[in-house]
Each structure stands twice: as structure tokens, then as C-alpha cells.
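Let's practice the habit of predicting before peeking. Look at the sequence and jot down your guess about where helices and strands might fall. Then scroll down.
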Amino acid sequence: MADQQLSAPSRASSGIRHINHDHHRGYVKIGNHLAQHRELSMTAIGLATHIQSLPTGSKVTIKALAERFPEGEVRIAAALRELETHGYLARLKERLPSGHVVTCTVSYNNPPARSTEPHRARREPASAPRPDPEPAPAPAPVPEEVPEAEVPEVEIQARELLARLRLRDPRLVLSERDTVRLAPAAARWLERGLVPGAVVAALTRALPSATIHSPAALLGHRLREQLPPRIPDAWAAYPVVPDRVVHPLRSCEDCDRAFRSPVPGRCTSCAAAAPAA
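Done guessing? Here is the structure:
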């Protein structure tokens, strides 16, 4: 009886394996032209996927998206510009009946199909008479430009404050994205009457001696947990009692005894004995 020959198992591929299940609800169709786009960044591809999954009327402003994702306003704004460049997004100005100008965002799930649509206008036969030219329509009114939302002055001051923290401690180096993200929290301190020096002192007081692996997380925690309370306006009528001044220790010029004084000289005992001598 011949020996039974067993076939060797096929070598497993080192590439990706797919285990797919049909979606019956809660899904969005994404074309490979987007998922495998050669020129879009991963942030732009992910953002386009998120936008296409949103219902009509959802807000897709930079601020709304920055509140939803951790990338921050700078990277989200750059990704939106990528999607506009490649035809996946368009932002148009529209005038409302009230006269206000608003920005309307349009998402295209298949920009390649837009460029290949057949021309719908039919050609007239060569023998057909050419119609009389119609008067050119009046040019549509150009909508007024809406200025971009300006960054409040207190938030600009907060960004500068956070950027200068690395001068106090070289371990507190923040990226531009983290500086923009933490600026609103630092601005709340300034709005509550603290001067920039007091905010810097609170953020850099009693720092850990070990390596700071995430300065943004450390500063974000302190800005959130150590936020001082608001001072009621009624308290402004009460005078502020100055703190007691503590003079430095000095050595007496005669007996070398230590005493506190704003200026060098003799202690109280030696100063009283000097006229008698």
C-alpha cells in the first residue's frame, strides 16, 4: 500500500488580509480614488471620509472640526485646502434674503466623475440658420467678502505667553499646534485679571525634576485644574492690604550678631550703646 502524500500548506502572505462583513446600516461609500489618493495626506483622506459621512446641514468649519478631532486648527485648515485643490470640497459665498453673506460648503464624493460628465448641450445641424444673438445677461452682483474671524487679542497674548515658556524651562517646548490648542485655556487666566508673569509663574512652579515627556499635557492639566476663580466686581471697592515686608538678615558691624534690616549697620543693642560710649 502506497504511503499517503500530504500537500504542504501554502505560505502565508506577508501583506494585508481582509475579513469583510456587509454593512446593513450606518455606513458610507468611499471610492478608491479617495482612499488610495497619491497626493492627499492621510489627514485629508480621513477628513474627507468624515465629512462625507455627515448628514446634510452639519457644521464643517475649522473650529467645529478642531473640537471633534485632536489635530488642531492648523492641520485641519491645511487638510481642507488639500481637499479643495483636488475637487473634493468647495466653499462658496451665498447671500441670504436678509442680505447677510454666508459660506456654503459643498462635498463631492466623486470628483473624477465631474470631469468626465458628457456635455449636455445639443449641437445644431450645420444647415440650420443661426439664431439672432441674444443680449448678454446683466452680470450677477458680486457677493461681499466676509472677513475671516480674527483671533482675539487676549488669545494672541496667550499664544506668545505659551511660546515663551521654553525660555523659563527648556523642557517646556510646545509645537505650533499645541500652542494654538492651549491658547484659549491660557486666555481665560488673563481674562480673570492675572498678568502674564503670574500665569507663567503658576505654570512653571514646582515642575517635576524628571524628564517631561509631554509638556503640552502637563501645561494643559495645570491650565485646566489650577484656573483661579473670578473676582467679583464688588470686591474691587475694598482696599488691598499690603503683605508684611520681611527684611534680609545682616551681620552687625560691631558684635557680628545677625539681625534683620533693610540696610547694613549695627544691631539694636549696639546702636543703643553707641551714643553712651
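How did you do? Confidence is low (pLDDT under 50) at residues 119-131, 142-147.
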